[in-house]
Design goal:
Elements lengths: L1 E3 L4 H12 L3 H17 L10 H10 L4 H15 L1 E3 L4 E3 L9 E3 L6
Antiparallel strand pairs: 1-2, 3-4
Helix pairs in contact: 1-4, 2-3, 2-4
Length: 108
């Protein structure tokens, strides 16, 4: 079960800052998942999770880091889902544990 975001502006800024420090591979993977998720919303979509995902992943790997992080933030904030209790923001549409970010600041 997921909750809708209902946090402070500081919490949202924390998530945004944490997205900015993710590596290209992680951001590209998240965006490829978003692309595939969009396709699954189309009832006529027949391809399995695979060929187009890999094509998108390779495309996203070549985008600048700041573009990737901005798009991930836009998608995540549009979905605005988090874990039960509101601790972790979903960065991908599937709520993968490895694609979540805490709303609290993370110390180095």
């Amino acid at each position: 079960m997921a909750w809708q975001w209902s946090h402070s502006q500081e919490a949202y800024q924390n998530v945004r800052e944490q997205i900015k420090i993710l590596d290209v591979e992680t951001l590209a993977t998240i965006l490829a998942e978003w692309s595939e998720y969009g396709r699954f919303q189309n009832p006529d979509y027949e391809d399995s999770f695979g060929e187009l995902y890999n094509k998108d992943l390779n495309t996203f790997r070549n985008l600048p880091l700041d573009v990737l992080s901005d798009v991930v933030w836009d998608r995540a904030s549009e979905l605005s889902l988090c874990t039960n209790g509101g601790w972790l923001a979903h960065l991908c549409p599937y709520g993968c544990g490895c694609h979540m970010s805490p709303f609290d600041t993370v110390e180095d």
